[in-house]
Amino acid sequence: TFKAIILVGGPSRGTRFRPLSLDCPKTLFPVAGHPVIWHHLEALSRVDGLREVLLIGFFEASVFESFLFDATREFGDKFHIRYLREYRALGTAGGIYHFRDEIQKGDPQHLFVLNADVACSFPLNEMMSFHTTHRGLCTILGTKVLPEDAHRFGCLVAKPGSNEVLHYVEKPESFISDLISCGIYLFDVAIFNTMKEATQNKASQIALDPYTDSDDKLQLEQDLLRSLAEAHKLYVFETKDFWRQIKTPSSAVPANALYLEQYAQTFPERLAKSEPGGPQIVGAVYIHPTAIVDPRAKIGPNVTIGPRVVISKGVRIKDSIILDNVEIKNFACILHSIIGWDSKIGNWTRIEGTPVINHQTIITHNGVKIQSIAILSKDVTVKDEVVIRNCTVLPHKELKSSFHNEILM
Ligand code: GDD
Ligand code: GTP
To answer: Is the Cβ–Cβ distance between 365 and 402 less than 8 Å?
Structure first.
């Protein structure tokens, strides 16, 4: 049997997800109609022998209350789901070590650890089969990225054939490898011994050199994976399937597209279809059952329409996420955008962003906002016949004229 941990982080983190995270932590932001970590749970529900999923983070417990309620209703017959709160940010391995007794209750043999801020096909069963073929303590999920993007991730050099990880370097300054860590791991429980050693090493280092710049957080990447690689105990399973980080609101749009395209393959019944008397649907589109879409609208591809949204005639939406209770009036056009909760888009108005390329995560470059997804936060009203292009709009704004390439506060 095994357990799974989702590292959900906490409020001081995810600053890059502003302004949308002001109203919702990024791990609960909806992509393809469900919170980011719902997709983790769905993937975990396809693995046999999973007893419990623990969300570990340093948010207040109330943040996850309604999510846990919904998740238990959906997945409760497969596994228990609980939130364990760190009293402060303990690092990516610190929380796992702190709650080691809780985690080891019920005597699980293996432990999946999943970063919350990723979108992935989660080939967990494949990782599991691969894990049983080697003698390591950890299988890490890897993927290839463009060489110029690799430095923003944990980089792996693997031995051809066996896939043993020879070197692990977290966010290296110079190029080491285009094979990177997806932030998805499978551990043997014996990893707690390694964690104990790592914790002791860390404490004695700090005692020897009180001015060291390493803090007392225990980091999975720097404090564990490196030494596991040195001890020949780390292996990589490379996925050719989709994987993306979700750091910025913009990255929610490609993540949304990837999950919707996956639904088209695995759960086509979840997606909207063009039907007589209904709107014209192009490609993968998810429409919440409580949304009202005029039959003269044209939607898709890669669009999610949230609960209680109202879309009028002649509206065109492409590559966008429309959040709860948004109203979009006649002939408005929305491309490459996120429209925040309770916003209102006027007649003939156009909201347009620029598609995100590859693993782009920055919002500004040399102080200038780079072209990206257009983002309207909660409760933004855009009047009729206005064009908003490549803008990020903070909550509770009313826009009466057109804007380009700006952050509107
Ligand atoms: N519980 C807890 N406590 N969770 C944390 C903490 C903490 O103190 N700090 C970070 N996390 C969670 C975050 O919410 C996220 O899910 C995950 O741990 C990793 O976040 P970061 O520490 O911000 O690292 P990163 O995302 O820049 O890089 C990591 O993920 C990449 C893949 O997405 C590294 O593991 C890289 O090596 C990896 O390539
Ligand atoms: P179609 O031409 O409709 O098949 O869409 P497409 O998949 O080729 O998309 P394209 O990138 O050409 O542009 C998106 C669609 O939005 C186009 O069909 C445009 O006619 C339509 N469009 C552009 N601006 C507006 C607008 O201001 N209002 C409305 N209602 N539609 C618009």
So the answer is: no
Q: Does any ligand 1 atom lie closer than 6 A to the CB of residue 117? A: yes
Q: Are strands 374-376 and 350-352 parallel, antiparallel or unpaired?
A: unpaired
DSSP assignment letter at 370: P
Ligand 1 centroid–CA 385 distance in Å is 42
DSSP 61: G
The mean-pLDDT minimum among 67-81, 203-217, 292-306 falls in 203-217
Q: Which residue lies with its CA nearest to atom 15 of ligand 1?
A: 115
Residue 21 CB-density burial (10 A; 0-12 exposed, 13-18 middle, 19+ buried): buried
The pLDDT score that the predictor gives to residue 400 is 97
Q: What is the DSSP letter of 4?
A: E
Residue whose CA lies nearest to ligand 2 atom number 19? 316
107 contacts: CB under 8 Å, gap ≥ 6: 1
Q: Which residues contact 83 (CB under 8 A, 6 or more apart)?
A: 8, 54, 55, 56, 57, 61, 64, 68
The string of DSSP codes covering 100-156 is HHHHHTT--SEEEEEESSEEE---HHHHHHHHTTS--SEEEEEEE--GGGGGGSEEE
pLDDT, one tens digit per residue, over 20-55 is 666 678 899 999 999 999 999 999 999 999 999 999
Q: How many CA atoms lie within 13 A of 378 on its CB side?
A: 8
The alpha carbon of 266 and the centre of ligand 1 are apart by a number of angstroms equal to 29
| Contact indicator for 290, 306 with CB cutoff of 8 Å | no
pTM: 0.91
* Residue 8 CB less than 6 A away from ligand 1: yes
Q: What are phi and psi of 199, to 5 degrees?
A: -65, -45
